[in-house]
Amino acid sequence: NDADGKRTTTLTLKAIDDIKYAQMYTCHFEYSDTEKYESEGIEVAVRVVNVDPTKYYHTNANFKITCLFVGAEKPTGVKWSYKGPNDSGYSPITSGSDNFDLALVKDNTEAVLTKGPHTTDDNGEYDCEWEFATNPSLKPTGTQNVIVARKFQSKRLF
User: Fold this and answer.
1) Which of 19, 49, 60, 115 would disulfide-bridge 142, Cβ 3.0–4.6 Å?
2) Based on the number of CB atoms within 10 Å of its own CB, is 134 exposed (0-12), middle (13-18) or buried (19 or more)?
3) CA 28/CA 102 separation, integer angstroms
């Protein structure tokens, strides 16, 4: 109870990583047979990002990473960043720099990063971070670990 005699109830949803949790929640209070109350309700928005965790590529070819947003809200944008195996932090990626091409498709719910041609220097973590007008501090992210392998030609020894 607070100073006004009102009751406060907290709804805690842990590990909301499924779109099924996005809905309206209301509280029903029954203090006696005659005292029954229902809260106005609260809308819970869920922001889920899907990306393959690890992909392997061969050198001298293009690679493509797709980062999908699933939710009722429409993102306003996405930021890509990269962290190499020996880097301490992430560096931003911009379209056109270092052979990167960035695109937003499917009503701004699918972010596509393409790089080509690439080398083993491109190994590392590629991170997509979605942005929203509502609650802009809540930015869901997805990370893909990219491993680039060199192609070797085998020689027959006889």
Assistant:
1) 49
2) exposed
3) 47
**Amino acid identity for residue 59 in this structure:** T
Residues linked to residue 119 through DSSP beta bridges, in sequence order: none
| pLDDT one-digit tens code per residue, 85-127 | 999 999 999 998 888 999 999 988 999 999 888 888 888 999 9
Handedness of CA 103, 89, 135, 22 (dihedral sign): positive
- Kindly list the distances between the CA atom of residue 151 and the CA atoms of 24, 111, 119, 157, in Å, as whole numbers in the listed order: 53, 29, 11, 19
Using a cut of 0.85, tell me whether the model's pTM lies above it.
no
pLDDT digits (tens, 9 = 90+) for 19-49: 676 777 777 777 777 877 777 777 777 778 8
- Which two three-digit tokens encode residue 16? 């909301």
* List of long-range contacts for 84-92, beta carbons under 8 Å, 24+ apart: 84/121, 84/123, 84/124, 85/123, 85/124, 87/124, 90/125, 90/127
